[in-house]
Specification:
The protein is α+β, with helices and mostly antiparallel strands. It has three helices and three strands. It has helices spanning about 1-10, 30-55, 90-105; strands at about 60-75, 80-85, 115-125. Strands 2-1-3 form a three-stranded antiparallel sheet, covered by helices on one side. A hairpin with a 4-residue loop joins strand 1 and strand 2. Helix 2 runs antiparallel to helix 3. The longest helix has 28 residues, at about 30-55. The radius of gyration is 27 Å and the shape is elongated. About 15% of the residues are buried.
Length: about 130
């Protein structure tokens, strides 16, 4: 009888398992950053098309870095869109205009902030 009562006491004294931590709800800033990232990701193919069209006729192998910057107001309207190319090419002005037009066609999120800046850099290459 003594052995059975000790077993019962030990089973009650076992430490309880901790509950898994609750997942934190993403902050408004995190949600906005993710939405801006998806908007820029959606423009990547069209930006690449602008870059490829701009380097046609150049050397058979090339590498072009396109950097874009978009400034949005709180309603998701573009206040400023700019693009830079490194290295510059013969058709750099046309390529930048094409990229800026692509950025203006993107559906940008409403931010509820006075101004929001989104920047991205893509590297395109032909080898």
């Amino acid at each position: 009888m003594v052995i059975c009562s000790l077993c019962a006491v030990t089973s009650w004294a076992a430490p309880k398992k901790k509950a898994p931590p609750a997942k934190k709800k993403p902050t408004t800033t995190q949600v906005l950053e993710e939405t801006l990232k998806r908007s820029l990701d959606g423009a990547q193919v069209d930006v690449g098309g602008c870059v490829v069209a701009g380097v046609e006729g150049d050397a058979p192998t090339w590498k072009q870095v396109a950097k874009v910057k978009v400034v949005l107001d709180g309603k998701g309207q573009i206040m400023e869109a700019s693009a830079t190319l490194e290295p510059s090419n013969v058709n750099a002005a046309n390529t930048k205009t094409c990229i800026e037009n692509v950025l203006r066609r993107v559906a940008w999120p409403v931010t509820h902030a006075p101004l929001t800046t989104a920047e991205r850099e893509w590297t395109f290459a032909m080898q």
